Amino acid sequence: MYPAAGSTNIELKPVINISFSEPLKTSTISSRFRIIRNSNQSSVSGTLRHYVVNGRSVLNAFISNTLLENEAYTIILLAGVEDIAGNPITTDLTNEFTTGSSNYVSQTIIDNFDGGISSWWQPTSSGSTFGVISDSTKISSVNTIINLNTGSIKSMMLEYAYNLNESDWLIREYRSVASPSFDANAILQAYILGDGTFNKLRFAIKETSLNTYEVSPWIDIDWIGWKLISWDLREGQTGTWLGNGILEPPFIYDSFQFTHNPGNKHFGTLYIDDLRTAIFQPTDIKDETIIKPTKYSLEQNYPNPFNPSTTIRYQIPNESLVSLKIFDLLGNEVAVLIDNEYRAAGTYSTEFSTDEINLSSGVYFYQMRAGQFTDTKKFLILK
Questions:
Q1: Tell me: the pLDDT tens digits for 156-165?
Q2: Hey, which residues does 212 pair with through a beta bridge?
Q3: What does the radius of gyration of the chain's CA atoms come to, in whole angstroms?
Q4: Do residues 1 and 133 touch, judged by C-beta distance below 8 A?
Q5: Per-residue b/e over 345-364, b at no fewer than 16 CB within 10 Å?
Q6: Are the C-beta atoms of 158 and 123 separated by less than 8 Å?
Q7: Domains 104-282 and 292-383 fall in the same CATH topology
Q8: Where are the domains of the chain?
């Protein structure tokens, strides 16, 4: 879980990550998940995503507003969440963490991938790539699995397969367009949706004055779901590739690199988003910086039409009992996403998936009730 239980000095806009050893039933999750500010028991608004990666579920919570500095928060997953066989978690899961007074601040966006992947070679186009199954190793641009922490609209998906008949492996995912220059005071970062295979990845940079390259130490891909990965150049730690192991700026970004860790799964899928340089610096986040909604609203789901999942966003200006239900064209209730649950003022989103509900293609309605507010919108399921 991230943040880990009892952890301190956490950045002010973390991506919450809770992973499980088996797949969960999506419809039982969203109404049971909370992030609470301990000092006043107020709810933190945000967007919850449920992914199933290699047969395991992971919950990522993307917080809408920056958390307050030096504050304690508690992540809560209420009892009743079920696995796909219908077995419920019988006790509440709680995890407390405390923020610090600093946050990651982006310096230079190297690539947010919103414009696609035209700046990146296919992995096998690089002569430095070896030990892979070519037809099964490729990149593509996607808009369905993205890092919502930064408002991203696209990410880069890497599908890979290592050839087990080889004894050494390297994927060099090369960026062919020169990035903005940066120096050794930067923190190089990217959001990576890991597949939990325990294979490895690293960053590679080019030292432009020397025309040579340095890499970060290898990072085990031991997580599933979104995670912020960093190489702090200020610490001077490097791996071994083409350079001398000494960081000598200025730099431009060269590539992501990946390798197989023998004894682990030799194929998988990773998603990469928001490659950047950043600094970790003090902030001054106070209560008044958090903007609360001024009215009730229910937004159109996205994507629409969809198959198999979509996201429904809504806002409430005051603490309210909220319900969110799905109906067919005849007015029959076919799914309950939120069943009269208390919500603090804020902006929320709920994921609806047809994976666990046998719904045919067609038009359906979703209706939100909160206090005296009621609104109904329609969406289209395509199969």
A1: 999 999 999 9
A2: 207
A3: 22
A4: no
A5: bbbbbbbbbbeeeeeeeeeb
A6: yes
A7: no
A8: 1-101, 104-282, 292-383
